[in-house]
Amino acid sequence: MPTLYHSPNSRSSRVIAQLMLMGKLDDVDIVIVDVQRHDGSGGADPRNPHPEGKVPYLVTDEGQGIRESAAIMMYLDELFGQPLSPAIGAPDRGAYLSWMAYSGGVLDPVLVAAFSGVEHPALVGAYRGMEEVCAALETALSEGDFLLGATLSVADILLASPFQWAPHLMPDNVVIKSWVERVGRRLDGDAIAAFEVQALSTLKALEDA
């Protein structure tokens, strides 16, 4: 089975949420590893094969490594029959792919800049800013409950996750807030929280060993 390298309460938590929603958590080997945290805690874990010691990182049955959340989430969705994405050739497949690329190409850089208090014309020119991000999300959500309309997709799980982790970065926009809440209601928050508690316990046991 594929192996997912996961650190509790990190970017890889959205992959755990996806696997739970698909009912496929037991079909992936989850390896709990440590990572360097923004507050200075944690550190590189020699058990993690990611070239930069980050998570998530997926190793396929064939031994191929896959990095970056969007790539991993798309791979897992396709591996298990695409329950959370439009089929290849479907009319909204292009919009889905666009949002998956938008997450790492625009949303993440804009949020990191906002979180860090960094302002520079080059950043806005290359990645745009929160105003443009809000406009893009609001435009998509004006046509349905989720980014692709009436159906939840991997794109919703991926793009809503930063606002779930860091609510202080949530735009003061009722459309976006309602969308993040809807995505959260579709995920099993209690099961995810319980999994993360167990993962933290596993990580502590490894550190104490």
What secondary-structure arrangement, pairings included, does this model have?
Elements: E1 3-6, H1 13-22, E2 29-32, E3 57-59, E4 65-67, H2 69-79, H3 93-116, H4 121-127, H5 130-141, H6 154-165, H7 174-186, H8 189-208
Helix pairs in contact: 1-2, 1-6, 1-8, 2-3, 3-6, 6-7
Report on the structure:
There is one protein chain. This protein is of the alpha+beta class and 209 residues long. It contains eight helices and four strands, in the order βαβββααααααα. Strands 2-1-3-4 form a four-stranded mixed β-sheet. α1 (13-22) links the parallel β1 (3-6) and β2 (29-32). α6 crosses α7 (174-186). It is globular.
Low-confidence stretches: none
Mean pLDDT: 94
User: SS-based structural class?
Assistant: alpha+beta
Radius of gyration: 17 Å
Main pleated sheet: 4 strands, mixed
Main sheet: which strands, in order across? 2-1-3-4
Task: Identify the overall geometry.
Answer: globular
- Tell me the span between the first and last alpha carbons: 27 Å
- Counted by DSSP, the helix tally is 8
Helix amount: 40-55%
Question: Helix-strand pattern, N to C?
Answer: EHEEEHHHHHHH
Question: Approximately how much beta-strand content do the residues carry?
Answer: 5-15%
Would you count the extended β strands for me?
4
Summarize the entry for a quick read.
The protein is an alpha+beta fold.
Any key phrases for this structure?
209 residues, 52% helix, 8 helices, alpha+beta
